[in-house]
Amino acid sequence: MNVTFTCRQCGTCCMSLGDYIIIDKQIGPYEFACESVSTGTEFIACVDEDKREIFCDRSFPDNHPHACRFLRPDGDLLRCTIHNDSPAQCKFYRCVIMRITAPGGNVLGVVTGTLHLHSDDRMLRAVWEEAEKNIPESFSDAEERRQRYLVEHGYLVT
Ligand code: SF4
Ligand code: SF4
After folding, report:
1. Interval between CA 80 and ligand 2 midpoint (Å)
2. What is the pLDDT of residues 34-73, one digit of tens each?
3. Domain residues of the chain, as ranges?
4. Is the pLDDT of residue 1 over 70?
5. Best substitution site from 82, 85, 91, 95 to test ligand 2's pocket, by max atoms within 8 Å of Cβ?
6. Rounded CA gap, 53 and 67, in Å?
7. Are residues 64 and 57 in contact, defined by beta-carbon separation less than 8 angstroms?
8. What is the pTM of this model?
């Protein structure tokens, strides 16, 4: 089981993926033959019907050459315009699954979906290293158990 993750559609993770999600050629008005470079997977992407209007505005990709070609602003959000057809690694990507807070309220670090801690706090890093030793990633419930481990050591985890 995994810790619940809700994508806020901020688009941050897609801003640097222009070299990784490649459009090989356009094959229809809203259809593209694509490649996911990191996995070497080819896929056909059809722009979601409800996002065709924002997709047609090319000013965003023109001004952000490193962003994924399918990313577009939509109000306050940056949206994937091929949500239905996006590659598996996009669908399953989880940028942050735990925010770790000191009892006083300061955010000390975050844990990514690949179970890596990002923190400058020495004590938290030491506790996490212990958690890594005691609860290997190979455990099917590693996420929940590591979350509990942090809570047992006095941290707030959201
Ligand atoms: S996975 Fe994370 S960084 Fe990417 S769009 Fe969702 S909330 Fe933003
Ligand atoms: S296909 Fe969609 S989710 Fe994947 S990088 Fe591009 S905009 Fe982001």
Report:
1. 5
2. 999 988 999 999 999 999 999 999 999 999 999 999 999 9
3. 12-91, 98-157
4. no
5. 82
6. 19
7. no
8. 0.83
